[in-house]
Design a protein that fits this description.
12 helices, 15 strands
Length: 391
Amino acid sequence: MRVVADVRTLDAGQWDSLAGLAGPGPFVRHAFLAALQATGCVGEDSGWLPRFVVLEDVSGALVAAAPLYLKGHSYGEYVFDWAWADAYRRHGLAYYPKGLVAVPFTPVPGARLLARDDAARDALVRALCDECDALGLSSLHVLFPRDVDAAALARAGLMQRHGVQFHWRNPGWCDFDDYLAALSQPKRKKIRAERRKVAEAGVEVRMLTGDEIGEADWAFFSRCYRTTYAQHHSTPYLNRGFFTELARTMPEALLMARATRAGRPVASALLMRDAQAIYGRYWGAVEHVPCLHFEASYYAPIEWAIANGIERFEGGAQGEHKMARGFLPVRTCSFHRLAHPAFADAVERFLERETDGVDAYLDELDERSPMRMRADESEADDASREGVAPA
């Protein structure tokens, strides 16, 4: 085991070979993580200090690796532990820095423990725990792991926490109208009305892939990106250099929605993609056009996904409003290890109660499914209870 401060010093081919064993997904690729470091989006000044933990065999080849960061805060994670940090502070204990295995600023479930096999994966979890103990960190957190990683973390005794996201699935629709036909009537009507408003405003949205995204598109997107953060009185996590680096090193993973009116750009949304999925990322506009956010961030990408045989559209963290656009609730998870025994016990009891709440929330969301079959079944059940025939 060794700890590496800069992922760029690791062999990209070996790293991506491990990442490839996890299946498609652009966010743990060497180029993505390297771009974050090369452009200063992560580093000591950002509160994301890289300490990549790697396991190598006797020949020096990578057999396992994890993107570990020492965090000086809890921003950019999308699994919220501010209350835990506050409890430590009120008891005179230091919560930060903490250990975090995650893709920075990216609430996308996927590979977190890159490993050749289960034995290497288990060894990697032990190495991560040992490193956090050696540094005297308060805790270790692994966010949005895939199932095989979750199993290894559970075997090591880390506490599991659940959350909810909303993902769109494509069972093989022919076109956007075919997709709409699967939704309940009120949802179909709402989506058609929202798309009509954008069209009547004279706005056209075009999806651009990879090398189709020109320098002017990136300049305008960067303006939109900064504007969105400014409107929320916040500071952007990423910079223009990061997006430029992605365009240079992994253009095939990029997808941009460009909205224009009378030939003039008015809004932009950036997504990422692989062979199976697209991932909603960042949106911004310089003019207010009713419903344009939904068109550029959801409807145009869904239409593109159907046309290109994409199976899944992950819309990012939170967002119950996504259900009205055909996104369905999905359970997510994270894993946590707290060094202080009393705090670990308190958090474990909290997580038990929180899990019950997440279960109830998912049941409630399932009853409000936007899909036509589920909605029709619900109407039939209601009518049966009332002793009348459903409409």
